[in-house]
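Subgroup meeting minutes
Present: P.N., E.W., G.H.
Scribe: E.W.

1. P.N. recapped why we're keeping a running log of single-chain structure predictions: easier to compare across weeks, and new members can see raw inputs and outputs side by side.
2. G.H. added today's entry (410 aa).
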Amino acid sequence: MERRRPLLGKLAGIAGTVGLAGCVNPLSAGRTETDLDLDPNPYGDDLPDRQHAQSAYVRRDDHGNPLLPRHHRVLLLDLAASPSVETGQTIERAMRALEGAFEWAPDGLFHLLAWGPGYFERVDALDGAPVRRPEVLSRTDDPDLLDIDAALALSSDVPSHLDAAENAMFGGRDSLAGSPVEDRLGDAFSTVGRRTGFVGEGLPVEHTDAEGFPADPPLSEGDRMFMGFRSGLRGTQASEDRVTIDDGPYGGGTTMHLSHLTQSLTRWFDAFDESERVARMLSPEFDPDDVEGFTDGVPFSDAVAEHASEHDVVGHHEKVARVREGGEPIVLRRDFNTVDGGRAGVHFLSFQASLDDFEKTRKAMNGWYVRDDSERIRDTDNNGILKFISVESRANFYVPTREYRALPGF
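Output recorded in log:
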């Protein structure tokens, strides 16, 4: 069961936790996998060092835009075993079982193991870690702020691969790809939450019976996202290099933010025609014919205040684009649709070198700075897509490199 937890609630979470005095220098420069008394990863030469590396492996459309795997699952985890060499060995061997069973490809399985602030506090490394507890970032939402130890993120074009991986790691499945599974993540973690979803042509229209949709939403087989717009054009995304921590004890990794947003799509589709939806999703300077020509990016004129004064509405894209650095986005999104809980929504999953980048982007999305330019623009009214989404929960994580994914900082 998910829950909010007090600041120090995890410190006494496991009876008999080992002494942690040696854990204050996370990921020391000399650490290798052999510190866990394991042989080098037999699959390491065929895999990227970065757990978040997918760009070189995914399919691409005719315009070079990356196509995310079609099916996604994120398991939220609490560490149920004491941090120890033995626990680290179990975790690392379990992750290697996944690597041995599936290719690092959309028709195989992408996976990563990320670690939250609750874990880093437990090993007395939170002060120096690149992760912190999530915060409320707008005046109009009251999300659950989740203090989660870890998360296993899985994605594949083949939904049965997600089922097999989850059942092998946390259920009763005893083999993968014909090889026995001897170590499971379930031997070290308990599952406290589950996120599921999908992205890609033909998938949104198959789920319009969920709560939050009008009776006959104007979605087509070509739509990839519930709101009817393409997400993930390469010109609107940070590169994997941009979101990777450059150096220091956590260098090579990244931070991950995970939000669950529910959507009010009945209001979105019934209240506005296509032109009005374009104005709110992108910018009032565009019309539907313009959008058809956006093949690998969306133009940005940096005229949000002028659009507010002239049109009494501002777009989601033009607001968040204001935080670009050197003309480049600072956040890499891998968000996906969901009907978890029977309601239409999005699991917003993003990577960034610093959580400051995510928070800066979200605050730009709030659009408070344009309310003085139009009396019709309020906290949510005529303010991008804010009136049609609600933030249900937030969680923050650090994603180590593959070498350090088992108990980073221990």
